[in-house]
């Protein structure tokens, strides 16, 4: 049997939720392609469709039969007992003379003749239907008493399965495939006989069903825009709502309605959410951008009265919804945000992190600190603290209870209406931003302080309690919060010691747990007593000193056990998030790792400047060659387990094992190391007889080190790279002409120290060992 034909599959059911239709189409295409592949078939193209009542697929150009194939089957070893061979022969249906031996193993060749594609498709359809991965599914009817009965998103009523114009036999739980379907529920409720894939879409269109969801979406969008333009308004674009309306209708008919203009005194976001979430309506705005008292609903029928009754019914429903919203708004206006904030102590933020009120206290202190330390410039610290203390107050309002999506937004409106300063109202409104890639990043100083403090507190406290993201799971949205921190810092060029800023919320959280609040209160009492001029009795002074000693000891224990490990994890976490954030800008991830690996660079603005200069450098010939020289030096030092010594009291101490924890920049500041470096300088007794290439490398380092260090200090990282580039030729010559592992122990130690010095010089900019290539 030769030739090809198109295959049509339609699964007719009761209403499929709009939110499930796109995924269902993708799953159907994937599962069908997998079934074809298992059968040795392939379609020229696969198209899928969905309406509220049907899920359909057309596979174009399917062969009418599968090809005949030969399959090689492995059997037992030729030395195996006779019973093993007999079992293999029974399995294959062959005799021993039909087998062949290879490498001491029996093999059989099984010829599988081709079969009609229709015989393959029937079982494939049944497997797809029975194994379909709906997010939610149900059983129905008398058969539902058995857990083995068919499950589908809603009761399945019909199956169309046709290859060309022939019906492919399928039977699933008493539902038999055929060539008939149904049209629109109201316009054409009767049965329709199909000729196959060729007339499927057109026959259904004639019966008021548009099977392509993209086409239904385009009709909805374009007609809604036209209706708005007819009355001098503009549609508020919402592609998610377009897709949802397309998923709710088989024959979309947009209609324009009105609501009482008095409701426009409610925040516009509330009106839009009320219309969108509850009723799936579009909203409109006037020429000046203000929300208009109009909406567009999408009917699923061409009404004989032009939709007048439908519009009237939807207007009544929306009026009731808006009335409820206005009631919540008016009630919330009566309660000052400061009073609402007091209720936050009754809401648990997380069982390990205390209440929302506890979080607010930490955020308020951190926001003020960010301003007072000059990290966020141009903000009033009192306003930053005030905004932080009110930022979460709207969580207990009726409006946010009804519309959780508006947390922050409602607080901003309430703050403005209740007379709070503009900066405070804006900070409350926008402190959750940015909430993802592409979202607006705040730039108003007070808002930046509160938003940054809020996100830093969330990340730090969850990490110190080891509530970490893992794999694809991130239940507390910590990755998103970290991207927000990165966005705020880079957009506003904030100069911040990230590790220190993250440590602050940790100490605040852990301090409360170990009773530090009592110690702080005692210290405040001591200060007040001294200010009043009263002398403390000795027992009180002893008590204070004892409390101080216990506090210091306890904090040392807490720092080592909890804070230091959390900060280490956070460095890796932020390196990863910065990599994600910078990926679109073309910044290489290994270069970000190379700078983070220094362990001393927590200023993201400066770090990224290093990374960009490093990326420009390593893509030059000098950069590539210096990297090769560095890796060669690093490999030798690693093999020898060698580093510049921290202590060189005598010349006999030639080196010390490398632990990987030393800070290479700190080494050169120690007097002993400075002396050791001086000994290696050109003209010293130890180098007088050194090869010219060794002396040249010493000279190059003496010139490059201070130049690079000065450039790093003034954040001229391109200049630092230029200084390091001068090492490229002498390090190449050194490796070409000098034997590092000299038989003389002193010479060998001197040369290893020279390589360690070279590595330390390069580490002024980045850890080159992390760079790929």
Task: Please describe what this structure looks like.
- It is built from 28 helices and 18 strands.
- Strands 1, 2, 3, 7, 8, 9 and 10 form a 7-stranded mixed β-sheet that branches. Strands 13-15-16-14 form a 4-stranded antiparallel β-sheet, with helices on both faces.
- The protein has 4 domains: 4-66 and 117-206, 2-Layer Sandwich (Alpha-Beta Plaits); 213-333, no CATH class; 339-585, no CATH class; 603-770, no CATH class.
- By secondary structure, it is of the alpha+beta class.
- Mean pLDDT is 87; it is low at 529-539 and 646-686.
- The radius of gyration is 37 Å and the shape is flat.
- It starts with a strand and ends in an 11-residue tail after the last helix.
Give keywords.
18 strands, 28 helices, 4 domains, four-stranded antiparallel β-sheet, 773 residues, 12% strand, alpha+beta, seven-stranded mixed β-sheet, Alpha-Beta Plaits
Work out the strand percent: 5-15%
Mean pLDDT: 87
Number of domains: 4
Shape: flat
Note poorly predicted spans: 529-539, 646-686
The biggest sheet, with number of strands, parallel, antiparallel or mixed sense and barrel status, is: 7 strands, mixed
Terminal residue distance: 56 Å
Helix share, percent: 40-55%
How many individual helices?
A: 28
Structural class: alpha+beta
Count all strands and give the number.
Answer: 18
Rg, Å, rounded: 37 Å
Structural topology:
Elements: E1 4-13, H1 18-38, E2 45-51, E3 54-63, E4 69-77, H2 82-92, E5 100-102, E6 105-112, H3 117-130, E7 156-163, E8 166-167, E9 171-172, E10 175-178, E11 180-182, E12 191-193, H4 200-206, H5 213-230, E13 234-235, H6 239-248, E14 253-258, H7 268-279, E15 282-285, E16 291-299, H8 308-333, H9 337-341, E17 348-350, E18 354-355, H10 356-372, H11 381-390, H12 398-402, H13 409-417, H14 422-430, H15 445-464, H16 478-491, H17 498-513, H18 516-531, H19 538-582, H20 589-596, H21 604-618, H22 621-640, H23 664-667, H24 671-680, H25 692-713, H26 717-725, H27 728-737, H28 745-762
Parallel strand pairs: 7-10
Antiparallel strand pairs: 1-3, 1-7, 2-3, 4-6, 5-6, 7-8, 9-10, 11-12, 13-15, 14-16, 15-16, 17-18
Helix pairs in contact: 1-3, 5-6, 7-8, 10-11, 10-15, 10-17, 11-14, 11-15, 13-14, 14-15, 15-16, 15-17, 16-19, 17-19, 18-19, 19-20, 20-21, 21-26, 22-27, 22-28, 25-26, 25-27, 25-28
């Amino acid at each position: 049997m030769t030739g090809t034909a198109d295959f049509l599959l339609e699964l007719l059911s009761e209403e499929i939720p709009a939110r499930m239709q796109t995924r269902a189409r993708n799953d159907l295409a994937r599962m069908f392609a997998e079934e074809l592949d298992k059968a040795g078939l392939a379609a020229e193209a696969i198209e899928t469709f969905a309406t509220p009542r049907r899920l359909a697929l057309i596979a174009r150009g399917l062969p009418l039969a599968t090809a005949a194939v030969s399959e090689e089957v492995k059997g037992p070893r030729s030395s195996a007992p006779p019973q093993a061979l007999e079992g293999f022969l029974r399995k294959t249906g062959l005799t021993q003379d039909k087998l062949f031996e290879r490498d001491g193993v029996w093999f059989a060749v099984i010829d599988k003749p081709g079969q009609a594609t229709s015989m393959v498709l029937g079982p494939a359809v049944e497997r797809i239907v029975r194994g379909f991965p709906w997010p939610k599914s149900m059983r129905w009817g008398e058969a539902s008493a058995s857990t083995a009965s068919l499950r589908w998103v809603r009761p399945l009523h019909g199956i169309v399965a046709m290859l060309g114009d022939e019906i492919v036999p399928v039977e699933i739980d008493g539902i038999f495939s055929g060539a008939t379907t149904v049209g629109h529920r109201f316009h054409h409720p009767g049965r329709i006989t199909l000729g196959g894939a060729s007339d499927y879409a057109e026959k259904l269109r004639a019966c008021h069903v548009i099977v392509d969801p993209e086409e239904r979406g385009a009709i909805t969008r374009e007609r809604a825009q036209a209706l708005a333009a007819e009355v001098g308004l503009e549609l508020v674009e919402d592609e998610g709502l377009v897709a949802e309306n397309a998923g709710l209708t088989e024959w979309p008919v947009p209609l324009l309605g009105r609501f009482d203009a008095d409701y426009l005194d409610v925040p516009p976001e509330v009106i839009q959410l009320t219309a969108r979430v509850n009723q799936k309506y579009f909203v409109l705005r006037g020429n000046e951008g203000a929300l208009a008292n109009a909406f567009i609903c999408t009917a699923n029928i061409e009404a004989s009265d032009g939709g007048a009754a439908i519009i009237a019914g939807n207007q009544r429903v929306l009026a009731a919804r808006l009335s409820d919203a206005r009631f919540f708004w008016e009630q919330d206006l009566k309660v000052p945000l400061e009073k609402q904030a007091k209720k936050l102590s009754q809401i648990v933020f997380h069982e390990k992190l205390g209440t929302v009120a506890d979080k607010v206290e930490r955020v308020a202190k951190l926001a003020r600190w960010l301003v007072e330390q000059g990290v966020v410039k141009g903000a009033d610290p009192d306003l930053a603290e005030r905004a932080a203390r009110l930022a979460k107050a709207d969580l207990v309002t009726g409006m946010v209870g009804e519309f959780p999506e508006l947390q922050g937004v409602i607080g901003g409106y309430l703050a403005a209406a209740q007379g709070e300063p503009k900066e405070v109202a804006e900070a409350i409104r926008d402190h959750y931003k940015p909430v993802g890639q592409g979202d607006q990043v705040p730039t108003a100083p007070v808002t930046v302080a509160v938003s940054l403090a809020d996100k830093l507190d969330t990340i730090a406290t969850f990490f110190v309690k080891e509530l970490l993201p893992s794999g694809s799971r991130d239940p507390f949205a910590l990755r998103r919060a970290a991207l927000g921190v990165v966005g705020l810092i880079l957009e506003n060029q904030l100069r911040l010691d990230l590790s220190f800023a993250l440590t602050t919320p940790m100490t605040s959280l852990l301090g409360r747990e170990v009773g530090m609040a009592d110690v702080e209160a005692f210290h405040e009492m001591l200060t007040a007593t001294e200010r009043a001029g009263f002398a403390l009795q000795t027992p009180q002074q002893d008590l204070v000193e004892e409390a101080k000693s216990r506090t210091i000891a306890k904090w040392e224990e807490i720092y080592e056990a909890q804070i230091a490990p959390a900060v280490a994890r956070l460095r890796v976490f932020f390196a990863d998030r910065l990599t994600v954030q910078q990926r679109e800008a073309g910044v290489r991830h290994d270069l970000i790792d190379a700078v983070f690996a220094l362990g001393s660079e927590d200023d993201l603005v400066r770090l990224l400047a290093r990374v960009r200069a490093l990326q420009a450098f390593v893509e030059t010939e000098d950069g590539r060659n210096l990297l090769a020289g560095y890796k060669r030096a690093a490999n030798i030092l690693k093999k020898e387990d060698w580093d510049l010594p921290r202590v060189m009291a005598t010349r006999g101490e030639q080196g010390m094992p490398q632990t990987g924890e030393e800070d290479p920049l700190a080494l050169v500041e120690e007097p002993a190391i400075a002396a050791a470096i001086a000994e290696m300088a050109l003209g010293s007794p130890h180098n007088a007889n050194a090869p010219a290439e060794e002396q040249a490398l010493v000279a190059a380092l003496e010139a490059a080190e201070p130049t690079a260090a000065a450039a790093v200090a003034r954040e001229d990282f391109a200049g630092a790279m230029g200084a390091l580039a001068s090492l490229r030729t002498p390090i190449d010559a050194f490796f070409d002409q000098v034997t590092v592992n000299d038989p003389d122990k002193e010479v060998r130690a001197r040369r290893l120290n020279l390589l360690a010095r070279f590595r330390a010089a390069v580490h002024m900019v980045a850890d080159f060992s992390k760079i790929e290539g």
